[in-house]
Amino acid sequence: MICIIPARSGSKRIKNKNIKLINHKPILKITFEIIKKSKLFDLIVLSSDSDRILKIGKKIGFEILSKRPKRISGDKIGTTEVIQHEIKKLKEKI
Q: Among the residues of the chain, which ranges form H helices?
């Protein structure tokens, strides 16, 4: 099973919320640790429009880092479109 984490940098309410620290850890790392500990997924993918978020994701240990195009990174783009895009990219790789 595959887990896809969409982490956009341009949140309107809290900028870069995915890398904000809670107890000295980025929220993204806390999320990754919970997913990893669950042992439900064979692969954890991080999808982002931000090179900074992807760089942090690499340090955290995400197996696949996917740079998302700007056309599916805006405020009006839903999670479904992002997930569909990542599944299509994964099918091409596998």
A: 27-38, 51-60, 79-93
pLDDT number for residue 4: 95
With beta carbons less than 8 A apart as the criterion, state whether 28 and 7 touch: yes
43 in Cβ contact with 93 (< 8 Å):
no
Which residue type does 89 have?
K
As given in the structure block, the two tokens for residue 73 are 């990174």
Torsion of CA 30, 32, 35, 38, to 10 degrees: -70
- Is 34 exposed, middle or buried, given 0-12, 13-18 or 19+ CB atoms closer than 10 A? exposed
Q: Assess contact for 24 and 43: CB atoms under 8 A.
A: no
pLDDT, tens only, 34-85 = 999 999 999 999 999 999 999 999 999 999 999 988 887 777 777 888 889 8
Query: What is the model's pTM?
Result: 0.86
